[in-house]
Write a structure and sequence with these properties.
- With 206 residues, the chain is mostly helical.
- The chain is 69% helix and 0% strand.
- Helix 8 packs antiparallel against helix 9.
Length: 206
Amino acid sequence: MATSTLETDGRPNRGGRPRDPSRDGVIRAAILRLLAEVGYNALTMDAVAAEAGVGKATIYRRWRTKSDLVVDTIAEMNREETPTPDTGALDEDLRVLLRSLVAAINGPTGAASHSLLSTLPHQPALAEAFRQGPLAQWRTALATVWEQAEARGEVGPGTAHSAVAQAASGLVVQRWLLTGEALDDEYVESVLQTVVLPLARAAART
């Protein structure tokens, strides 16, 4: 990304003394808390350092800009929270993946991500990095689940990149962002049983 300060592997440029990896989790947790509380525009490197209980130099050794700091943190948290299940059955793979998505949405990563939504249209580099990082991780995991189902013959060729495959995550995200209704495992099961799996079975017969 030409406009981003992230390196080509998605990690921020760093200089100076080697970082202490033991502090990464504390710093990332502090970033997520602050994003949820004050949003992106009010977030400062000083505030992150204070919240995490580290020196400001420790922050700058890891991230050169606030954009780097935010995108790298959310991307890393999503890497930890995004499974790629292979249980041998499409319904169970989707169940595992969507429950993980719901857990992430209802946790610190979801709260921090929600706080960024109003900022992304005004920060093109941040928006692009967010799409290519956190969102791409979930898209890849979802596509992999459907591709595995294709390979097993559970669904027809091309289903992995169809509207049928997108319906599951689309309904979850819609409920998260628009309706304000409860988002839990019960809703995941309803989406699977009443929408996604019937569509998948219908597509397999055509």
